[in-house]
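Margin note from the TA: students keep mixing up input and output lines. Inputs are the sequences; the output is the structure of the whole complex. Example:
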Amino acid sequence: MDVSAVNSLSFEEFVEIFGNVVEKCPLVAAAVWSQRPFTSLGDIEAAIADFIDGLSDSGKEGILRCHPDLAGRDVQRGTLTPESQAEQSQAGLTQLEPEELAQIGALNAQYKQRFGFPFVICARMNDRPAILAQLSQRLGNKPAHELLGAIQEVKRICNLRLQALVRPILPAPAQLSSTPPKL
Amino acid sequence: MDVSAVNSLSFEEFVEIFGNVVEKCPLVAAAVWSQRPFTSLGDIEAAIADFIDGLSDSGKEGILRCHPDLAGRDVQRGTLTPESQAEQSQAGLTQLEPEELAQIGALNAQYKQRFGFPFVICARMNDRPAILAQLSQRLGNKPAHELLGAIQEVKRICNLRLQALVRPILPAPAQLSSTPPKL
């Protein structure tokens, strides 16, 4: 879909298509529909980032709490969203050995105890060892710092989910040639 | 469940139980979990109201856009949330005659065209004729006024959904008897 097609969507269609670019937070897509018309994929992304950045700290924590545990309960139950399923699967998190499951489960529990939200990372940009290393390392962060870092991961996940839905606008040849060349 | 039981819930449990007190916006419950401990049902309700009031106008519009049309597509498809199903059913909106369906559908379409969000009303506090009358009347409101009015309805719906989940705190008998009776 290109951006002009996005701009012609009703809010129902927009929420149906973009409702999970931020995991389980259709409210985000539903809110940014007000910012149409969008000029590019980056413009949609910026509207979403603005919405998230405008939330209070507890709102940002809320965004994170809507995410599933990596390799957690929803993986075992088969109740991940299709987007999360694809991402966790690609990172090898849906087929862990029992010892790995126990290790990641214990670290996740520590992380949630410390920060009050689950560990969120852009699984598509990391492999299994990198994810485990990050989880251990980020456990040592200060809470305010970790909140902002985790929200950055939400934006990375959102960017990749958007890329799967919207074609970036390329400059049209006619527009390029309409700018007089410097002589 | 009483409030002390609510306060002992993990965020996963809290979001699972309270995730739909604002229709399809688990983010709201996930955010207010940060405000624990709560002292009463009213305290939870106030935290939710504060979160909603703190959203930008487009955020408030987003909350409304997560609601289904009354007697709309989700009723026909059977895809309402359980809470919405019970509320619309009690107000008689799931068993309309074809003419009534056409009438409410046309008014809904006009409303969405005018305001950019669906008509939201606390169905439990209104019967079918009152809902139709309100829909016609509110169509004439100014957009800024209608946005605030519709958000009030969201809070009424939320209040009733909370009441179905949490017992209000009653003064304990020991406390009552500790107040010396007037003789």
